Amino acid sequence: MKKGFTLAEVLITLGIIGIIAAMTLPSLIGNYKKKVLQNQFKVAYSLFQQAYLKIQADWGYTPNCYYWDKNPYGGNKCIAYDDRGGCTKWALSDGSELPKNYNGNMEECKIFYKALEKTIQVINKCENNAFEKGCIPEYEGIDTVRIANNPDLSEDEAYVQTSGCNNFRKTNLLNKTPAFVLKNGMIMIPYSISGSPIFLLDINGKKSPNKWGHDLFAFRIRGNTNLQLNLLPEGSCSATEKGGLTTKQMIENMYNSKYTK
Q1: Which pTM does this prediction carry?
Q2: What angle do the packed helices 247-254 and 7-59 form, to 10 degrees?
Q3: pLDDT by residue (tens digit) across 3-25?
Q4: Cis peptide before 209, with omega less than 30 degrees from 0?
Q5: What residue segments make up the domains of the chain, in order of their start?
Q6: For the packed helices 109-119 and 7-59, what is the interaxial angle rounded to 10 degrees?
Q7: Which of the two ends of the chain, N or C, has the fewest CB atoms closer than 10 A to its terminal CB?
Q8: Contact status, residue 203 vs residue 186, Cβ threshold 8 Å
């Protein structure tokens, strides 16, 4: 007659199973969450890319709200600074005045965003004070993320480094920058609805983690009069919090079979 397991043996076995579970579950859960966010990113990217194509088809031409696919004017330089060292005025590399369309054609951004609101089904809009009004959670800004990633960086240094991206600094992001809440829960935060085709997109809305490079990503619309608008990663006015990925990396992963299977 075979003997059964003793209570001590059962407890030891359960303890071993518990230890193994404690070691592997966090990794499994983490990988699952990354997979979910990657799929949500893919849905969001497709939604906006299709929206641009629809608007372009409806209008019969490329809307004038884009950064140049290739800048025709060459480089630039800062020629005036504020008392904290942030740039307040730019010129061409030779010192001559910047053309109005130096960055791209943006004179139709206001009506383009109006058309986009309808196409992506915006159900709530905060033109300012987006955090106080409940349109967005409390995000960090590109300035505070830079400081968190580099503790030796002073506030003034972060201010200078984010010059030209002031609408995405934390104070402005929460209190001045507009925000759109979509029917599907996603949140779109345009840098400016009147003249800048750069925006942030929270792919899962107010759900956590609400961090740059995790579920909050920066995009830029590029194109020209002969090409369709393209949704590309924003580089200058962007940030990545610890453990996150850049928008460029997310797009690359989206097309990588390892992440899409």
Answers
A1: 0.85
A2: 100
A3: 666 777 667 777 777 777 676 65
A4: yes
A5: 7-69+105-260
A6: 130
A7: N
A8: yes
